[in-house]
Amino acid sequence: MKILFFKSILIILGFLSLLHAEIFDTEIAPFSKGKQCGKVLLLDQKVLEFKKIDGVKFSEISDLAYDAAKKILYMVGDEGKVFRFEATFGKKIEGLRPLDAVKLRKKHGKKFKKWDRDSEGLALDNTGRLYISFEGKAKIGSFDSKGSMIRSYPLPKKLREPANYRSRNKSLEALAWHPKYGLLTATEWPLKHKKKKAQTIYSLRGKTWYFKAEPEFKSGVAAMEVMDDGNILLLERSYVSLLDPVVVTLKKVYLNQCKGKKKVCKSEVLVKMNNHKGWIIDNFEGLARVGKNHYVMVSDDNDNFFQQTVLVYFEVKE
User: What is the pLDDT of residues 297-316, one digit of tens each?
Assistant: First the structure.
């Protein structure tokens, strides 16, 4: 009887621990789809529920970057916050543990003003230096391990003028580091002088690439990452209202296959996820490469009780 009693206690304690789990499994694909959808193979999906990490509120994650050598996954939040996780990836997410968090600051430790800290894009170069792009007052800077800005970088001429953006909240949404072209950025929606579907990738060294946005209404760039072959994995997101479908598209943009007078680059849809077609998706807007052909993407919970931070681990099939 004592053995049965202790077993019952262990079962109850295990159940209670699950109720308070900070990381747990989920599934975003329709059951009929299986694990491979288009050219994307879903490997693992986790809901991350943390109130605070290292005393900093964990919410509104907008982008990711991964240091494979140190096995550190960086997450940047909309309000000038960076979180570090110890993370290992294999056939699944094999380890994921929060380490610490910092609040971003200007040079010499000065605080960013509330309207000046809308951090959206995140990238690491080959030396491990961290770069962050901002909406609101559009800028790109490098930051040290304590969250202080080391330096800011001059933007291409068209990106310097606030009046060129369709709104303050539609500026430097995505950031990536390319071994050949350096820092790349993209605005969520095209600049005002562009057609609504005429999107651009900008290198801070002056080069530009053009591609067509997806046909869904208000489909905008949410994140991008450099692939193993030097092309771009792009995450586009379309959200109109609660009654309209949320559509998240993963596509490949070929930087060396740009033709015509306008030099529009070839793009290929890898998978299209639509919540009106059974996908359990929301505000996905972060992306990082974690291994050869392997990536993670993350959703922004908008600091809303009814939304979640979901980390999806996937492989792009050639």
Answer: 999 998 988 899 999 999 99
Q: Greatest CA separation found in the chain?
A: 82
Return d(Cα 313, Cα 277) in angstroms, integer: 21
Angle CA(96)–CA(98)–CA(103) in degrees, nearest 5?
Answer: 140
Closest CA to 267 of 283, 251, 250: 251
Model confidence, pTM:
0.91
Q: Is 157 helix (H, G, I), strand (E, B) or coil?
A: helix
The amino acid at residue 220 is G
The DSSP bridge partners found for residue 200 are: 210
- Euclidean distance between CA atoms 280 and 18, whole angstroms: 21
Mean of pLDDT values over 223-236:
98
How many angstroms from the chain centroid is the CA of residue 114?
A: 22
Cα–Cα distance for residue pair 207/279, rounded to 1 Å = 37
Distance between CA 6 and CA 44 in Å, rounded? 33
How far apart (Å, rounded) are the C-alpha atoms in residues 199 and 203? Answer: 14
Residue with tokens 């610490």: 100
* Average model confidence (pLDDT) across the chain: 91
User: Residue 297: what are its φ and ψ, rounded to 5°?
Assistant: -130, 155
Find out whether 94 and 290 touch, Cβ atoms under 8 Å.
Answer: no
Class of domain 2-316: mainly beta
Is residue 122 within 8 Å of 155, Cβ to Cβ? Answer: no
Amino acid making up residue 14: G
Query: Hey, what amino acid is at 122?
Result: L
pLDDT tens, position by position, 255-298 = 999 988 789 999 999 999 999 999 999 899 999 999 999 999 99
Three-state DSSP at 209 gives strand
